Amino acid sequence: MKVSTFFKLAKFGVKTVFFKKQDPILGTVILTDKCNLKCKHCSVNNITSVIYPFDQIEKDMQRLFDMGVRILFFCGGETFIWKDGPYTIKDLVHKAKQMGFLIVNVVTNGTFRIDLPEADLILLSVDGDKEHHNAIRGDTYDVIMKNIEEATSDNICFYMAINQLNKDTIADVCAKAQEMKNVRAVSFNFHTPYPETEELALTKEDKRNCCGVISRMIKNKVPVFNLRSAFPYLIENRFPTPCRQCLVIENGKISVCGRCIDVPGLCDNCGYFFVAEYTLLFKGKIRIIADMLRTYLKYV
């Protein structure tokens, strides 16, 4: 992370904590819900299969920027499917940087060629070892690993959604991340039980066991892009929701924190690590602040 970026984000954090502000800092633009996969834990893909045009995406980006957002994510569907005439995901990252966003990240399933060194991080879904990943996402593991090996930059971060199918493969994903030169870190979430995926949700004991494994990985110097200090809150689901500092925009519609806010009761079962981390950060939790400083300076 650039020093100038660090100080700008730190200034926002200080103002938010001391003056109890709820201004947004992190935003996600949904490019499309079209996806080439039908993953077992996903309930938001291919509902409309609409690919939003460049002009609309640009408006959404500008709106977030004007609201104060400086950390931007592009999500889908599958982001690498997105195209509008000559424009691709690469052009959107360039445009975001030109607008002044400090950090620009892209979320992908990794089944397309990865040539995006302009992004700060590429969050790439890997949901277990080969057997369990393929059980969740179809026969894609080998293609994804090949794409990672041939990627043009080392800005990839594994992004694992832990559920009942893959909860015992955390260490396998960490080991794979360590052996691949283009993978910078691993980031975890617990499954958030959207309608029709409730059977994949973890119990409190499952979460405790998973956090124990992740903690051991961190102690063993595995590059984990999560905050261990937030784990007790995640296990008990006792962090504030929604996160007012995070916004999602899709075709002009803004949601606070995420699309899950539209589903009654779903926030009470939130499994997104970043939501816990950010809400606790902006509540002024000292251990979270120190943990985030160490982690973000190392991996972003």
Keywords:
300 residues, alpha/beta, eight-stranded mixed sheet, 10 helices, 38% helix
Structure in words:
- The termini are close together.
- The chain has helices at residues 3-19, 54-66, 89-99, 130-137, 141-149, 170-179, 204-219, 231-236, 273-282, 286-299; strands at 26-30, 71-75, 83-84, 87-88, 103-108, 121-125, 156-162, 183-190, 246-250, 253-256.
- An 8-stranded mixed beta sheet has the order 8-7-6-5-2-1-9-10, sandwiched between helices. Strands 3-4 form a two-stranded antiparallel sheet.
- Helices cover 38% and strands 16% of the residues.
- Helix 2 packs parallel to helix 3.
- It has a single domain, classed as Alpha-Beta Barrel (TIM Barrel), CATH 3.20.20.
- The protein is built from 10 helices and 10 strands.
Short description:
With 300 residues, this protein is an alpha/beta fold. Helices cover 38% and strands 16% of the residues.
Overall body shape? globular
Describe the sheet with the most strands.
8 strands, mixed
CATH class: Alpha Beta
Number of domains: 1
- Name the helix and strand elements from N-terminus to C-terminus, one letter apiece: HEHEEEHEEHHEHEHHEEHH
Count of individual helical segments: 10
Briefly note the structural class of the backbone: alpha/beta
